[in-house]
Amino acid sequence: MPDQILPPTIFHMLERNLDKKIRVILDPSYGFEGRLVAVTHEPAGIWLSDAEAIVMRATIAQPIPQIASREERSEIFIHLNSVQRIEVLHPSSRH
Fold this sequence. Notes:
Blueprint: H1 10-16, E1 21-27, E2 30-40, E3 45-57, E4 66-79, E5 85-88
Antiparallel strand pairs: 1-2, 1-5, 2-3, 3-4
């Protein structure tokens, strides 16, 4: 199999987003936001700096979960086995 290109792993995708702000969803109503500062293979996880714990709520009128509260957490390690979704947050461009 010459010149076979392998798809990037989750580690490669995370490493591309180092130093960016991300949101990590652990379950439908709880997660963390912070700056991605490190990706580890053993144990498989990520380190967030300037982290905040977030609680999300959805209602019948607003089915897309919105952040209801935040709590500062400084730095935190999150094992990838407990993650449902990771979102890269882009800075808003307000003029």
